[in-house]
Amino acid sequence: MSLSPAAQQFLKGAKDGLPFHIVIWPFAAIFGAIATQAGLNVVEVMGFSILVIAGSAQLAALQLMTENAPTLIVLATALAVNLRMGMYSAAITPHLGKSSLLTRAFAAYMLYDQPYALSTIKFEKEPNLSLSEKLGYFFGAAIPIAIAWYALTLGGALLGEKIPTDIGVDFAVPVTFLALVAPMLKTPAHLASALTSGVLVLVLGFMPYGSGLLIAAAAALVVGAQVEIWMEKRKAAT
Prior knowledge:
Blueprint: H1 5-16, H2 21-37, H3 42-52, H4 55-66, H5 71-81, H6 84-96, H7 101-109, H8 113-125, H9 131-159, H10 169-181, H11 188-203, H12 212-237
Helix pairs in contact: 1-9, 2-4, 2-9, 2-10, 3-9, 4-5, 5-12, 6-8, 8-9, 11-12
């Protein structure tokens, strides 16, 4: 029995996402272990992972919680880390936006770094894919990674202190993130925004509770928008 085109794309998405499991598995397990060591119970840890499903924001929020940072700072920092999801949504809407409301809602929940990066590259290379094929590929890339994230977070939470939390995943995760984001920095606005955020995060590292990240994120958005406006005006003038 032959698979439908959408099912074939689902399998391709799952296959393309396999390399990311190398980082996701230990990262999720370490997050679960750190969270339980910080005082969260298993239900709270799993609620955190299932509802937020964003490792970098989860770790940033957890670190601030252990430092007894004000709730507003915790929420604002997690939001700042995840502001990129809004840009992801705007970028992928032309491809998936015609699907049903329920499908779009589930796609929005599953829209995180890895499936976004893989799908963006796929859709650019194969612009003639149908909506069902695009959805198949997107969910094929997203769902297996999400399931692995849930499962390994649970494993880490249950094992707790038996899992070492200093095995270098804190280095592997940002490197993986850079590998995802770097190919997308194609315009002056993207480059200006990335440079602004990177420089300001380093300069403002002295600020309490990582609040320098909030300023860096806001400044990067403003700079990126201004460069984009400048580029549009330049095109109109030529």
